[in-house]
Amino acid sequence: MGARRLAALPVFVVACALVAGADTNAIQRTAASPRSEAFVVLRGFGYSGAGERAIRALEPAMAAQGMDLYIPDYISRSGLDDSRAKLRQIMQDRKMARYERVHVFAFIAGGWTLNPLVAAGGVPKLSTVIYDRSPLQERAPRIADENLHFLTWVRYGSPVFDLARTPYPPLTASGVKVGLLVETSPTEFVRDHEKAARSYGAFRFECDAFDQRHDDCIYVDLNHDELYVRFAEVWPEALAFIRAGRFSTAAGRTAPRGDPFAPRTRQ
């Protein structure tokens, strides 16, 4: 497999342990006192210290909108079921029901964790969910399961395998605004495993291909790693969706065509 393959593994796997001093039993909140709304970021398998800093840098902008920022450390080495139970407990411990509205931005693993919990009534006052989706990055857990299984388990435990083997459980709750934000570029990890990624079938970027009902859907010219560290670029769209149930008129709504692995000029 080689050192380069192992070094690339954190591109998609849980990076909770990389956040220095993180409290694995508590949600992290940046605000000094509760506001009327909560903005919850369910980090996933590409999260890093750089992503942490990038998202937390937006706290003043969120506070100006009356939102407390939460980035819960919810992913458990033992799998998605325990991650879901951990997230439920966090919601209860932090009394999320005291907010008038709760808005969630769910990275890929976050969606798989969140939706069954919502169905079970474990997320009070849920108003909005914006899902990060990617027909490219969503193949990374399967690649890891099939090609780097032992190394993945040693470092991160079972959640990657659960994600690889579990069909997406769509959010079905009524009264919740749902937006899709679709990444259009592969990470270095997926590029390194391009042959395996292609072997799983055609890449479908159409909004209806994600098995999730939605009120609006947009495309961003970012890969999974970039989305974390450049979260400031998508925050205005997230805010627009939270306030209006639609992304801005300037957002890209045309699905990409051609080979997603083809070289192109990046921003």
Q: How would you describe what is shown here?
A:
The chain has a 6-stranded parallel β-sheet with strand order 2-1-3-4-5-6, sandwiched between helices. Helix content is 38%, strand content 13%. The chain has one domain: Rossmann fold. The protein is built from 12 helices and 6 strands. The chain is globular, with a radius of gyration of 17 Å. α4 crosses α5 and α6 crosses α8. It is α/β, with parallel strands linked by helices. β3, α5 and β4 form a beta-alpha-beta unit.
- β-strand number: 6
How do the strands line up in the largest sheet? 2-1-3-4-5-6
**Sheet bearing the most strands, described?**
6 strands, parallel
N-to-C span: 31 Å
The value of Rg in angstroms is: 17 Å
Name of the level-1 CATH class: Alpha Beta
